[in-house]
Write a structure and sequence with these properties.
This protein is α/β, with parallel strands linked by helices. The chain has 3 domains: 3-155, Leucine-rich repeat, LRR (right-handed beta-alpha superhelix) (Alpha-Beta Horseshoe), CATH 3.80.10.10; 203-292, 2-Layer Sandwich (Phosphorylase Kinase, domain 1); 301-455, Orthogonal Bundle (Transferase(Phosphotransferase), domain 1). It has helices spanning 193-200, 258-268, 324-343, 384-403, 411-427, 438-455, and strands spanning 3-7, 18-23, 43-45, 66-68, 89-91, 111-113, 134-136, 157-159, 180-182, 209-211, 215-223, 227-234, 241-248, 277-282, 289-292, 300-301, 346-347, 356-358, 364-366, 373-374. The strands form 4 sheets. The chain has a 9-stranded mixed β-sheet with strand order 1-2-3-4-5-6-7-8-9. Strands 10-14-15-13-12-11 form a 6-stranded mixed β-sheet, with helices on one face. α4 (384-403) runs antiparallel to α5.
Length: 457
């Protein structure tokens, strides 16, 4: 058996003991020699091994905090995980799982990944997971959520896309920390006549078709969960134009499906703080894709994705810093993009710093529609509640941006900090209905920016 083991450091007190272990070859049964590290093992990765069951005494791994079993053959969530007292993060992405039994979830669970399985219901006992912050359920067969989940008061990110959910429950929007929500590809928001009206009001309802033969792909720009983005030339316009070409992978991602991402991107249309879609690719031999506005190299990414430790919050490079004026412009740009999206019945679902590009002037572009949902057809729900969830995500962004601002600490900049703190409190109110919409957020940010501009005249 081929193992990749990592030893601890003096910082974690393990003094060279094995804290992280990954098995990279196929398994027919759980390797019992893993128990030799039971006193120190914190991170176990058996993804891709084909494993389908765990031993009854799996709870011997008393210090285990992270367990990955993605791309294996589990059909039932193993109840043995509930006996691991410190287990916080569990992943079973891409198994054939159909059942999550009652009382099978670890008591300290913070991060649950069940993406791309065949699960039709969740156990009521999930309501006892009071520390649950991130729950990834896209690509299953869920028809509803158990009402007991209302007790998951720490839940900040929930992915429900590509299921069979008939209605989003109203109690979902009473969760005080829910900031990132996706639900595209469910019957509750199916694109019937009601949502067709939303699409027909956009200038991009007839997005041009672009033949694959008119595109010349050059260098790779980036790769995400849903697709690959390359720089290229579009020759079908009479004059060659530099563009970004996104080809979707075709699989269910942690956020949803490429088809839903593409539709949301098209519905969003054009805006100064979005990356514009220019055309839908046709004639590709086996993939769907979009031709997008090419973002110049002067733009950089604002943040880094969450770590295993930060869970639902972004990380940041130690080198990054902003002026107060840059930070304000970034926040104004993202808020303007969000206001535009919600005016078209689109929830971005992922308003994070790692999805924001910005330049030296502070001009911001909000990207990545992988978690976006079109909600114009949600008849059982006040649409304002969707926007109020995103307002909390924006509150997190305010906090993150202010944390990386390099202020001069003069009287006017301190005043800006006070005003931003007040807006942050409004956007993060635990009672969602008290949060402002993005029209009000952009108004307040404009007033703050005018205050700063007047002080420098």
């Amino acid at each position: 058996m081929h193992l990749q083991a990592s030893s601890g450091t003096e910082d974690d007190g393990s003094r060279g003991e094995i804290t992280k272990l990954k098995v990279v070859n196929p398994l027919h049964s759980f390797p019992t020699n893993i128990f030799d590290a039971a006193c120190s093992l914190q991170h176990l990765d058996l993804s891709g091994t084909g494993l389908s069951s765990l031993p009854e005494d799996f709870g011997r791994l008393k210090k285990l905090r992270i367990a990955f079993f993605s791309d294996c053959n589990f059909t039932v969530f193993p109840k043995q995980l509930a006996s691991c007292p410190e287990l916080e993060m569990v992943a079973f992405r891409g198994n054939q799982m159909t059942n999550v039994p009652e009382d099978s979830l670890p008591p300290k669970l913070r991060w649950l990944i069940l993406t791309n399985n065949r699960i039709s219901s969740l156990p009521k006992s999930i309501g006892r997971c009071g520390r649950l912050q991130k729950c990834m359920l896209a690509g299953n067969q869920l028809r509803c959520l158990p009402e007991e989940m209302v007790a998951c008061r720490k839940l900040g990110l929930l992915r429900l896309s590509a299921n069979r959910i008939q209605e989003l429950p109203n109690w979902l929007f009473d969760l005080p920390e829910l900031a990132f929500l996706s639900f595209a590809g469910n019957p509750c928001c199916s694109l019937t006549a009601t949502s067709k009206d939303v699409r027909d009001t956009t200038p991009f309802s007839s997005l041009p078709e672009v033949s694959w033969t008119d595109l010349h792909v050059h260098n790779l720009l980036g790769e995400g969960a849903s697709g690959i983005i390359s720089k290229g030339l579009w020759n079908g316009t009479g004059q060659a134009r530099e563009v970004a070409i996104k080809l979707f992978k075709g699989d269910v991602t942690s956020d949803g499906t490429p088809a839903d991402e593409m539709l949301a991107c098209i519905t969003a249309g054009s805006h100064a703080n979005l990356i514009d879609p220019l055309g839908k690719i046709t004639d590709h031999p086996d993939k769907e894709g979009l031709v997008m506005q090419l973002v110049t190299a002067q733009y950089g990414t604002l943040g880094l994705p969450p770590s295993l430790q930060s869970c639902t919050r972004d990380c940041f490079s130690q080198e990054i810093s902003l002026t107060t004026r840059q930070g304000l412009r970034i926040l104004q740009g993202v808020a303007a993009a969000a206001e535009h999206l919600h005016s078209r019945g689109v929830a971005h679902g992922d308003i994070y710093a790692h999805n924001v590009l910005y330049d030296e002037r502070g001009h911001a572009l909000l990207g990545d529609f992988g978690a976006a949902s079109i909600y114009g057809n949600l008849n059982n729900l006040d649409h304002k509640k969707i926007e109020q969830v995103e307002a909390l995500a924006f509150a997190h962004l305010i906090e993150d941006v202010w944390r990386i601002i390099r202020p001069n600490f003069d009287e006017q900049e301190l005043r800006v900090g006070v005003l931003l703190a007040a807006l942050h409190r409004e956007c993060s109110d635990p009672t969602g209905v008290k949060r402002p919409n993005f029209s009000e957020i952009t108004r307040q940010l404009s007033a703050i920016n005018q205050h700063l501009a007047a002080a420098t005249v």
